[in-house]
Every structure is written in C-alpha cells, then in structure tokens.
Amino acid sequence: MSTDILFTTLNARYMHTAFGLRYLQANLGDLQQHALIQEFTIQEQTLNIAEQLLAHQPKIICFSVYIWNITEITQIILLLKQISPETVIILGGPEVSHAPDVPDIVEQADYIISGPGEQSVKTLCEQILADQAPAEKFIEGIATALDKLVLPYDYYTDEDIRNRLIYVEASRGCPFKCEFCLSSLDKTATAFPLEPFLEAMDKLLQRGVRNFKFIDRTFNLKVATSVRILEFFLERMTDDLYLHFEVIPDNLPEKLKVILQRFPNHSLQFEIGVQTLDPEIQTLISRKQNNDKTKDNIRWLRQNTGAHLHTDLIFGLPEDTLDNFADSFNQLIALEPQEIQLGILKRLRGAPLNRHNGHYALRFNPQAPYNILSTSKITFNEMQQVNRFARFWDMIGNSGRFANTLPILLGDQPFERFIQLSEQLYQRAGSSWKIALKRQFELVFVILTEHFEEEAGTVKQALSLDYDRNQIKGIPAYEANNLTPKQKRVGTANKRQQLHQIN
Fold first, then answer.
1. How far apart are CA 406 and CA 392, in angstroms?
2. Alpha-carbon dihedral 459, 464, 469, 471, rounded to 10 degrees
3. Whole-structure pTM over 0.85, yes or no?
C-alpha cells in the first residue's frame, strides 16, 4: 500500500514511542490521510528498515534525529538515496537543528527543519506534493502557540498502550539556563491549556493507560498547575496507576507536600536532576540550584512519601574532578534515593556549554553519542574508570538486586569503595557488560571477602537474602564452597559443531 508521507525514527528500545512524530501527524490537517507513522529500533537491521520504508512507495520520508540514532539513520539515508533517489528526505530533531554544527548526513538530505516542526513540516509537505518545493534546504521551524496545537494522544495505538511507554506533556520549555542542556535555549516554560489536556488524560485512562511519563522539564515550576494535575490523577487512582515527573530539585512548597503524601506507595516516580552539588561548577555552567533545599527536599520525599526517587549526576563538567564528583555522589548517597543515574557529559549540538570546550580542554568522542573523553582536570583513564563505575552502579546499585548487600559494600566511603569494586569486577569478569546475575553474586562475594576483607559469614548472609529475593536458579559458588574458576574444556567441539556430529 502506497502513501505520500512517512514519519519515522529509530527508538532506543521497542518500549519507547516517538512522541514528536505523533504531534506531526496530529497537526497535518488534510494531509493526514496521506501520511503514516512507522517506528523502528536501533537494534534492527538498516537494510530491513530501508526495505520496509520503501514498501510504502513514499514520496516523502521525515526522520526525527537524535544522538542515540544518528549513526543508524545515516546508514539508512545513504541506502535510500542509492535505491530511491527520487524520495524526498526531510530531517528534524535536535541533532540537525543547530547549523552550521550539523552531522555530515545533512548533505544527503533534501531538507532540514530546525526547531518546532508541527506547522513547518505540514507547509513543506504541501509545497513538495504540489510541485512547489522551496529552493532553500535549511528551514527554521515556526513555533505554534500551544493552544493552537492539536494534541497527539489519539495517535497512540492500542498496541502502544499495551506495550509501550506513553509520554505526555503539560508544558513545554524551561526558564533555566543550565549550559549542558538544550532547554537552556528556551526563553521560558509555557503550559498547555489545562482543561483540554486533562480531558485527553482522562481519555487515555479510559483506553487503559496506567503508566504516564510526563516529559515536562519543570513539572513543579507552577505549583498551582502541578497540584491540579496531581489532584486529577489522585481522584482516579487505581492500584496499577504509575506517574513519572521530572521536577526542580529545590522547589517543594507545602502545597505540593500535602498532596504528595496522599498518594499510595509506589505510584509516583520523580526524576530529580541534581547534576552536581559543587557550587563553583554550578556557577560556571549557569545552573541556579539551592543545594541545601535540594538535599532537604530529597530527604523529605524519602522519609514522608512512597515515591521512587531517580536522581541524576553528570560527570565531566568544566572544573569537575574525580574528587568533586565523589563528594557529590557521597552527599547524594546519604540521602538514600532509590536510584542515582550517573551520566557522562555529552556534547549536544547547539548547547551553550560548547563555549567552554577550548578553555577547559573538553575533548569529546567524535562519534555519537559524543561522550566526553577527557578535560583539563580529568584524564582519559579516570573517565574510563567512571564509565565502568556508572555501568556497574546500574547493575548493582540502581537495580535493587543487592539491597541487603549494598550497605556492606559502600561502608562509610561509598564512592571510594564502589570505584574499587568496579575495577575489581572489570578485572575479574573481563567486561562491564553481559555478566550473568548468578556470576555477579559470586564476584561480589569474592571481592568483598578478598579485596575488602569483609567477614565471609556476614557477606554470605546479606547475599543470601538478595539471592532469594531475585529468585535465581542454582547454587552460587560461595555456597557450594567452590570458588575455583571453571576450567575450559580442551579439544571439545562447541555446541553448534556437536549438532553436526553423528554418533
């Protein structure tokens, strides 16, 4: 079946949805009947993706481009231009919106739309289909007033609702100027008209949505609106309703506290972007944050609500050092959030932080996702250590699988001990990826008892509690009193080879 317009992107995982594409579809006017949304993941074969796109015989393909999919989209567009050069390729998204700092693939595309695309994509598609395509390649997106936008929530399919995250937004923009973030380019935050938004949320609830992921950068900026939205969901609360919000860490007035305490345990998740607790770095990157209020608010949320707290730190900012980062981590650990996401600074095209690249010797990976490699204060080796730290922290700290063992592991020097653990894990496992869960338990036991010289009985007791909680099959080596690594069999065919053998 042919269509004129395809909206497409590659998500990081199947469970994610391309929220922006649904806005484009919703605001396409009379062209809606000539357009389709088709999503893929970065794990799929690019040749297969190209085949599926061209199966619709589209005249126009619009790609949404981000740092996590630029590599794969580049490959796909190169294929498309070889197979079907007449197909018009339109690119949008943050990765291509900041000319002249754009990736090489823009040379292969026909049009680039920077910034908001709801109106600009519609206009461009109309022009192309009417054989009136504009001569200019780079088109600046025209922002549409939020009360004029058609909301996209009807374009979530039943399959989306059953299997994927449902993103929603009550506002756009951010009034803060943190230089590492593209939202610093916004002039302010603007709210969608509240009643139509809540009507759309009610419709999603009726369709069976129970997991709402708000993508507002500053959900708690306007407290009255935040309270109204929370009241709306509280009135419709069910045992399986789950709400995710990104919040300003140092803004938690009494009105919010009162309503948050009314939510049942495990129904709320707050993403709290702390990023750094170093005042000098905060000033350098134009981040306004009251650290005392931030810590007080995290402590209050942890002690007085059943909300899940997902906090964020960034390593590699200008003037950051291993010691500075360790101090922020240790302060945050003391507040006991359920998760601490350790992000490695990335070079975002258009971000004001790029003004510091020369002075602070910020050296980034030239390949996506453009992660920082070293700075004037952080060596490449230290950066690699923190990369491994972050990976193993997700595996052991953030996962919740080692809840009883983690206090022993961290002791009274959390960062210092965990970075030692991560280096030991890396040396003993030979990898920071794909370590089987049972093997993780075995390695943690060995490292705690041999490297940290913790008492074996105490470690076994804590690990046993965690092992049972995870319902892992089999007996770990330390319980079988068999800590000798398994010897590789010599001269034996592998499993694939054995299948071809006839006895």
1. 12
2. 130
3. yes
In single-letter form, the type of residue at position 127 comes to Q
Domain(s) of CATH 3.40.50.280: residues in the chain: 5-144
For 151, phi then psi, to 5°, come to -70, 145
Question: Element (H or E) spanning 453, and its range?
Answer: none
Portions of the chain given CATH number 3.80.30.20: 165-378
Of 120, 50, 122, the closest CA to residue 85 belongs to: 50
Per-residue pLDDT reduced to its tens digit, 335-354: 999 999 999 999 999 999 99
**Residue owning tokens 């020369």:** 358
Angle between helices 380-392 and 414-429 (to 10 degrees): 90
Interatomic CA distance for residues 38 and 55, integer angstroms: 12
Query: How confident is the model at residue 321, as a pLDDT?
Result: 98
Query: Quick one: 5-144 is in which CATH superfamily?
Result: Cobalamin-binding domain (3.40.50.280)
The DSSP call for residue 393 is I
Beta-strand ranges (E) seen in 186-280 are 189-191, 211-214, 242-247, 268-275
How many angstroms separate the CA atoms of 18 and 1, rounded? 23
Superfamily of domain 165-378: tm_1862 like domain (3.80.30.20)
